[in-house]
Amino acid sequence: MSTANGPLTPRAATGIPGLDDVLGGGFPRRRIHLLQGSPGAGKTTLSLQFLMEGVRQGESCLYIAMSESREEVASVAASHGWDLGGVAVFDASELDGSEEENTILEPAEVELGERMRAILTEVERVQPNRVVLDSCTELRLLAQTPIRYRRQLLALKRQLVEKDRTVLLLDNPSPESPDVLVQSLAHGVVVLEQLNPEYGAERRRLRVLKMRAASYRGGYHDFAIRTGGLRVFPRLVAAEHRAGATQPERCLTGLEPLDRMLGGGLDRGTSTLVVGPAGAGKSTLATQIVEAAARRGETVAVFAFDEPRATLLARARATGLDLAPYEEAGTVQVTQVDPAEISAGELIHQVRTAVERGARMVLIDSLNGLLQAMPSEGSLVLQVHEMLSFLAEKHVVTLLTMAQHGIIGEMLAPADVTYLADTVVLLRYFEAGGGVRKAISVVKKRLGAHESTIREYLPTATGLRLGAPLTAFRGVLTGVPEFEPGAAGAQLLPVQSP
Averaged over 384-392, what is the pLDDT? Predict the structure, then answer.
């Protein structure tokens, strides 16, 4: 958060809640602000929302279109279901002269002068409080030289911001060389970016490059363009959500042997990572804890990356854990997430919203899916850390699952996040008695003691079963244990017939 006497500056709200949060309430009034971004980044959509919010507040608003016709601007608004009846749209592109009148240099200068006079005449007629000029690219081309271009921008700055006018200039700079000339003249600069991953939908993000004498939230903030306009997801800062200390409280898993392994259950405000190979039962174990919380009347938010909602509910029923009644009652809220269509910022915003609406437990199944929504492993670790810190401040029990690469023997994780979690539960396959079995162990718990035993883990149609400690085996976690005949240990769980 950048601060510079920001709260004292009157703001013009954009009508986009997430963006107003980033800007500290909106754009500072009576100033020129620059929206920079490549075509398709969302500049026009954002500026139209800015104007419509002004109309809603009873202000006069003017949209000056230099590169688009009035009909094209109206079609953009119609695609979002907007009515621009309260916004004056001035089509400056209609002022183009004929080919005979505009040939080389002097006609371009004449055309620039005519456009500027026409624009200022329209501003004087409408007397707007909010003005959008789309775009600076046309002025740059008509001016032809940097000196003339700067003079025209200075003239606009002097004449547009008077009489309580807040102005947005739109610009399409070259990605390799942003126009620092316009940036230096503007009071605030917001840069919009459109990223194109190798697979999936485009991702968009913005950042406030500068905002003189005003507070704003720094860094990149993901946003999406949906029917109805921009949705901005401000970067989560856990330090802004500090809460007071509370009495320690345990959250039981609904499985007594597992509670014993965990030293009495899970602690509120902590995160638990369930890690293991594919098919080892990570989601089933997490579902067991979710069902126990729902049975107690707690609200649980489930974000499922790896399977459709119907599959999740069917798998839960197959192990004696019926979540459907809790979902119908609103106690369990299942959100199916497509990592190819959502950014990490939007997902974390959804998690934050669920918690602010009363969720006391959050399950993310799995981090592998979240990783696909991240641009890099470094971003994954940083954003997961911030999210877990926020959830801890809100005293939420957080469950995370992560699939490791491999089945038997050495396992590798796509990203090492075990140090972020307060508790780590490890699931493993091992070979014994001519069959493939599953083992469970708690390898880490920050708060309090926990069992260091390794137990057999068996999902059944009537629920999960945990066996006694496997003291008669050595090397279970390697996948191929050795039986020690002289050791006193419990027998393996009987395998149920299909």
Answer: 92
- Domain count for the chain, please give it: 2
Q: Please tell me which residue, 163 or 251, carries the higher pLDDT value.
A: 251
Q: Are strands 130-134 and 61-65 parallel, antiparallel or unpaired?
A: parallel
Q: Mean per-residue pLDDT for 97-120?
A: 62
Angle at 442 (CA atoms; ends 437, 445), nearest 5 degrees = 165
Domain range enclosing 117 = 6-235
Q: The CATH number of the domain where 416 resides is what?
A: 3.40.50.300
C-alpha torsion 7→9→12→17, nearest 10? -20
The DSSP 8-state label assigned to residue 214 in this structure reads S
d(CA 329, CA 408): 41
Distance (Å, whole) CA 340 – CA 334: 18
Look up residue 160 and give its two tokens.
């547009």
Question: What's the predicted TM-score (pTM) here?
Answer: 0.85
Q: Six-digit token pair at 491?
A: 């027998």
C-alpha 390: how far from chain center: 14
The arithmetic mean of pLDDT across residues 115-121, rounded, is 88
Alpha-carbon gap, residue 228 to 190, rounded angstroms? 21
User: What tokens appear for 215 in the block?
Assistant: 């507070």
Question: What is the tens place of the pLDDT at every residue in 470-484?
Answer: 888 888 887 777 877
